[in-house]
Amino acid sequence: MYARRLKGISLSRIRKMFEVEGEDIINLGIGEPDFEIPEDSKKAIIDALEEGFTHYTPNKGIPELREAIAKKLKSDNNIKRDPDDIIVTVGASEALYMCAQALIDKKDEVLIPDPGFLSYNACVKLAEGKPIPIPLEGKNFRTNPETIESLIGKNTKAIILNSPSNPTGAVTEKDDIKAIAELAEEKNLIIISDEVYEKIIYEKKHYSPGQFTENAIIINGFSKTYAMTGLRIGYITAPREVIEELLKIHQYNTACAPSISQAAALSALKGPQRVVDHMVAEFRRRRNLMHKRLNNMGIECNKPGGAFYMFPYVGDEAKFTEKALEEGVVVVPGSAFGYNGKDHVRFSYATSYDKIKEAMDRIENITDVIPI
Ligand code: PLP
């Protein structure tokens, strides 16, 4: 009845966690900022509606937005791309899907971080390619260029990178990004770099492989930086010949990103930096609290350098998740993110400081299930 291709793909275990509700439940499973979109973007949406900006836009997105993105890429990432080499997408999700559909053939292998964002595995499989996990290493979940090199075979087509990372919060160091970019050039592989958490970063600096190689496809979005998850707006930039291929999917699939979301995104990019700074400062405060509390409980945990997740080792993840739920705290079991996520859980700190405090008090009651 349904396509056989979909057989190996499971429904997201994180989506399921989104839906857990209850008066006394504290949901640390949620992967979206609990902030409002910037005031200027709200106004831009209202203006867009009033001005009748509710029709199809050019396939690639409105020129003003693509110009603003090109400017951002140059100033923030030192990447020179023509606005014509940018497609505005329906979130980073569409960009990922499009990349897989346009670039992956049957038998192609794609190296994906493990643990990593669920869509990588699914998108590669939906394109009938083969995901090959890159085991992230050590307490800091390093993406090691040498490990990547050892996984490259004759069918390898692309490498997916994600820094700062979902679910670990790890930030890949400049030297590692550079080494992976050089490796991709040497082996003629494409890098697909998912940079949606670029701006949610604490002590470290973000580096994009696009600074070091032309072979990089950069995916970014407005969901996380500007709390616009529901507006479904992101973008992709790639070398010209790749853009032409991506358009074959984008044109026939979504036609264009929502017009009013494009207006909101343009306003966000032009808006004051303090809006993002304010959110990041609050995330840092919550991260520090959660990290301190977990460590005081004896839960082994890296201090994440970015995003809004913590990914501690808890031993039996099923037991931990169940016990946490009994205490009214929702967390996501680590194996949802791949084999190497097992024995961990993902805590999101995209919820208020006070709720995190309360959640940590409750977790303290179940530390007997964690092997020290
Ligand atoms: N990439 C990563 C690493 C994510 O964590 C998410 C959302 O959770 C996405 C992409 C999807 O972002 P968007 O809302 O722009 O589709």
Automatic annotation (TrEMBL):
Keyword RNA-binding: no
Transmembrane annotation, as ranges: none
Classification via Gene3D superfamilies: Aspartate Aminotransferase, domain 1, Type I PLP-dependent aspartate aminotransferase-like (Major domain)
Family note: Belongs to the class-I pyridoxal-phosphate-dependent aminotransferase family.
Lineage: Archaea, Methanobacteriati, Methanobacteriota, Methanomada group, Methanobacteria
Cofactor(s), by name: pyridoxal 5'-phosphate
CDD domains from the UniProt entry: AAT_like
Name recorded for this polypeptide: Aminotransferase
Aminotransferase class I/classII large domain boundaries: 24-363
Pfam families: Aminotran_1_2
Assembly, per entry: Homodimer.
GO molecular function: transaminase activity
Cross-referenced InterPro entries: Aminotransferase_I/II_large, AspAT/PAT-like, NHTrfase_class1_PyrdxlP-BS, PyrdxlP-dep_Trfase, PyrdxlP-dep_Trfase_major, PyrdxlP-dep_Trfase_small
Keywords carried by this UniProt record: Aminotransferase, Pyridoxal phosphate, Transferase
EC number assigned by the record: 2.6.1.-
SUPFAM superfamilies in alphabetical order: PLP-dependent transferases
Organism of this sequence: Methanothermobacter tenebrarum
Extent of the signal sequence: none
PROSITE patterns recorded: AA_TRANSFER_CLASS_1
